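Can you give me the bound-state structure? Components:
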Amino acid sequence: MTDAAEHSQAPLVLVVDDEAPIRRFLRAGLEMNGFRVVEADTAQAANEIAVMRQPDLVVLDLGLPDADGASVVETLRGWSQVPVIVLSVRKSETEKIKLLESGADDYIVKPFGMGELLARVRVVLRRVVRQETADPVVKVGGLAIDLARRLVSRDGAAIILSPKQFALLRLLAVHHGSVMTHRQLMRELWPQEPDEDVQYLRILMKKLRNRIEPDPARPIYLVTELAIGYRLRTQEQLDAFGYVAAI
Amino acid sequence: MALTSWASIRGYALASGFVLVATGFAAAMLWFTPLDSVSAIYMLPVLLAAVRYGTGPAVLAALLGAIMTTLLYPPLFRVLVFTPSRLIDLVTSLLVALTVGQLAGRLRRHMVAVRAREQHIRQVYALSDAIASARDVDAVLAILAEHLATSLDRPIALFAGTEGKTRVVNSAFAPDVTGRLSEAAVAFLREERETTESIELPGIGRWLLCRAASGSDLALVLAVELPAQDQTGGTRMGELARGLLGEAAVSLERLGVRKVLDERRLRQRTDELRDILVEAVSHELRTPLAGITGSASVLAHVPDINERPQLRELATGIETEARRLDRLIQDVLDLGRIRAGALQPRLQETDPADVVNDALMTVAERLAGHPLRRRFDHGLPLIRIDPVLLAQALVNILENAGKYTPPGGAIEVAIRRDGEELAIEIADAGHGLEAGEAELVFERFQRGRRYADVAGGSGLGLTIARVFVEANGGRVTAISEGPGRGTTMRITLPVSEATGDDEDHD
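Here's the bound-state model for the whole set.
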């Protein structure tokens, strides 16, 4: 990773945080893992640097002195599709939902270790790559979802899904690894009545898990983000969290 | 009012009665001895009627007396033989009736007024007493509503407008009627034309609305239904209601409703201040911790350190301890929220397995030394809870189980449907509980003294867990068959009825 030629090709991460100690460890950790880093300590600086340097990823702290997180994300989304990972000390689920719906790709709650952040960074960057190469097959563990041919299989055996079930799985696969909020999902699945009770979504998810999960009571692919939404795990996420010692 | 007209009819009837009695008396006298002037006897009913019932009945008594007099003069019982002297008798008795009636009427009105004032003062005193014992403005208003209903002797609805919002204080009516009255009250407060207004609400009759303000902070609206046959537009009731309400408003003002409101405002400000403080503490303490955690995690992966176990353990130790400190701060903040009554569960239909799995994932690392068994029933119903609060409660209970279970000891988590309830059980293979300890474990800072060295926590975990479970409408109990036989923490939650079927169609 220290090779100069490779270095210039390394993804550029814009770290936006007003706390110098946080910026310091993020820079150290990211550079150790082969990323290039630029820093900003205000929302305004972040916007300027984002325009000038065109980063591959933005890591954004919520507690900026000059703007609230959601507005920074919205401004950014006004002209760019760059992936955004939000850092939050707040425990507020409402806040997280607001950020995800205003365009953030993922969030991480402080305090966090470098490993957790890197896992999320890889997920969002890989999704960008997949979107660019337009690979229609999403794979995780034994699960394979062919978005183009609408085929789903687990451990080689085909799984038959109802159109609604496939629609839900497809949405999560398109955003592979990231959280989709309940509302984002419902808006796509029930465009006529997106504000219906989240209960319908829960029941649909239960049915989808019954088809896809080896043990539906203990999902390893389709995981719940409590009070926020669902995500389809990536292989890396599966390896990191999937196996709580269980008998 | 009906009562008044009934009283006056009764006055006329009794006045006529007096005349009859006087006639009987005069007849009896005539039986023994002829009288020169029977008319004198007829002065008595006129006087009595005038004093007791006023001018009208007295005049009636005078006229009746004059007629009766003619009956009793010889020739007896020949009606309407008027002589000049009898005309003079009639005029005299009419004059007496009018004069005495006026005088007595004035006196009686005075007496009625005195009695009313006395009753009013007594009521106000009773109200004052009641209000003085009330703890907050709501209690004061409830007492006032009761007072108004009693005084008007009719069912009422009372609305209070504070700080631009109008709410129902008390209503003796069905919710739909109350709702429409409430709308009317809002409109009535907004218009600010008259202090009393009689309105027609289609379908629910005619109503009298009456308004009074207690200081600048509190406006009261009283609604009373008007009787259908009352054609006066409720004028008299309006007067009465306005009087009572105005008096009540003044009493409220005097008796410290302002104080109560001020206290509430102070409390709100205290709450805000505390929130700001909590936010600040949270930020000021946790931001450095985030820096420490992150930095340590980076250090642990630096090859030079990672390759030397001693140094690696130092780095991971810093990270672990910083995370623990962060959780302790969270515990203290949670407890602060609980103590301030600021816990607001955000209930939603939730799959219980999701919550348990989430909690298990959170504590996975900390419970790494313990085999974990799951026993989830099939076809579990959805429950209506705040998933975040319940998950936090489970995390606390699981951590507690981990702390008290020796390394290698299994922890079992079960979810089962139990009739109308859902039970989540976390069983550890720890030291168990002694008799009487089961309730104590949820007390703040309670921790088995024997195990203080292995525990290492704020001692708040189970206290917080219990409050969080209760905020979700559930209960948590500690069950143990005795020392050395493990402990089971049992959470029971009500099952929401609107649970969809498990059929696989959509």
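A couple of observations. The first helix of chain B runs from residue 2 to 32. The CA atoms of residues 336 and 342 of chain B lie 8 Å apart.
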